[in-house]
Specification:
By secondary structure, this protein is α+β, with helices and mostly antiparallel strands. Strands 2-3-8-5-7-6 form a 6-stranded mixed β-barrel.
Length: 417
């Protein structure tokens, strides 16, 4: 005989064809609900991971993995001190590029239009300056940013708002403070030599790049200067920056990209958490269906329970029978859901275009979104966590019906049979 008894009887109940159609229907609904809930969770979390990774890549495309700047309460560092800091940074394991930069807030003026921008001075010859700017530039070449040429590369949104094209003049107004302490605007005319686009408002709508010597020629204060650092692994930026911070001399501080863009990724984490909680309600509904189904099975099997009890089965064994039945349904649902979710999450780039062509709609409108592709980043840690939480929910759903079955009095169940 098959042992243990609760496992044998519980699996027989799962396989048996009941004459109660409604009980059978609720069983399949419960299994389908668990399956759909798990699959939806895996797919949505994977897509949100994909959007998060894509946003990170775009934000870092023109931003440093870390920056070294002078401390706010420190005196302006000398050129020798900057050289010392640069040597320390270059010798740090994991750092692949170090380059100076100069940054200032300004106004871009063309005809009667005016737009607040960030003027960034870089040296294109330096490794780690803005290596992705060349590939992001639609027109013109990064090498045309030469000292004394007064040329700039602007974001495409700036070009659209100001009506600029390659070769057009652009006046940059920079507010400075004279030695007497009075504010004074400083104007300089540049020539647009390129237009870049990375699909992020942070860059395309606010950034203008010029050679660092041309920006320095404006006579600006040194408060906006620093060093840009590129790492071999952007995700290791917090750890590398922490080690570098401990080696920097007094008067300098290092800031990694997770601090610069903390608000972006905090918003993504909140959205992903809330979406997971909402979709987890699908699993919760399926768990309630599982409770209802098991309660009806307990009522339907009162005679069987009584017979088991009179043959010597303890209440714990009776309880184990219905826990086994509920867990089997829950595990089947989780297993099919994980399989379905993983398959769809891995092939979102194929499935979505097929759905769009079949039903004649576009999920991400090209007129609204920079990219119409839906990215997916399947992480097995998420899959395991989703499966574990779902198994716990379905396991908890079996406790009340199983406890009710264990408390069924054998005499009452057999009295009218």
């Amino acid at each position: 005989m098959f042992h243990p008894l609760p496992l044998y009887v519980g699996l027989r109940y799962v396989r048996a064809r009941t004459h109660k159609f409604f009980v059978s229907f609720i069983t399949w609904v419960s299994l389908a609900g668990v399956c759909v809930g798990v699959a939806a969770l895996i797919i949505i979390v994977s897509v949100m991971n994909g959007f998060g990774s894509e946003l990170r890549d775009r934000l870092l495309s023109l931003n440093a993995h870390a920056r070294i700047v002078a401390a706010a309460d420190a005196a302006a560092p000398s050129a020798a001190q900057w050289q010392q800091v640069r040597a320390i940074s270059s010798a740090t394991p994991g750092v692949t590029g170090v380059a100076p930069y100069l940054e200032v807030q300004a106004l871009a003026v063309h005809s009667t239009e005016m737009l607040p921008v960030t003027l960034r001075g870089i040296d294109p010859r330096e490794e780690g300056a803005v290596s992705e700017l060349a590939s992001a530039t639609k027109e013109g070449r990064l090498s045309q940013l030469t000292p004394g040429a007064d040329r700039v590369i602007i974001g495409d949104e700036i070009a659209q708002q100001l009506g600029l094209a390659v070769g057009d003049p652009l006046t940059v107004l920079v507010p400075i403070v004279t030695s007497a302490g009075t504010p004074e605007p400083k104007l300089r005319e540049f020539t647009v030599t390129g237009v870049f686009s990375v699909g992020v408002q942070e860059h395309d709508g606010t950034s203008i790049y010029a050679h660092i010597e041309d920006v320095r020629a404006l006579g600006l204060a040194s408060s906006g200067q620093g060093l840009r650092l590129r790492f071999n692994d952007a995700l290791a930026a917090p750890a590398i920056t922490a080690g570098l911070r401990a080696r920097l001399p007094a008067g300098f501080e290092a800031i990694d990209w997770t601090t610069d863009f903390a608000s972006y990724f905090r918003a993504i984490r909140i959205e992903k958490t809330m979406m997971a909680i909402i979709l987890l309600l699908i699993v919760a509904v399926a768990a309630f269906n599982l409770v209802s189904m098991l309660v009806m099975v307990v009522n339907d099997k009162r005679t069987d329970i009584a017979i088991l009890r009179t043959l010597g089965a303890s209440p714990r064994r009776v309880m184990g029978v219905f826990i086994t039945q509920g867990l089997a349904i829950g595990w089947f649902g989780v297993g099919f859901g994980v399989l379905l979710g993983v398959v769809i999450a891995r092939h979102v780039d194929i499935i979505v275009p097929i759905l769009e062509r079949t039903f004649g709609f576009q999920i991400l409108d090209a007129d609204v979104y920079y990219s119409t592709n839906i990215p997916s980043d399947l992480r097995w840690s998420n899959v395991i966590a989703i499966a574990a939480v779902t198994l716990l929910l379905t396991g908890a759903a079996t406790l009340y019906p199983a406890l009710r079955a264990s408390r069924t009095p054998p005499a009452d169940a057999l009295r009218y049979e």
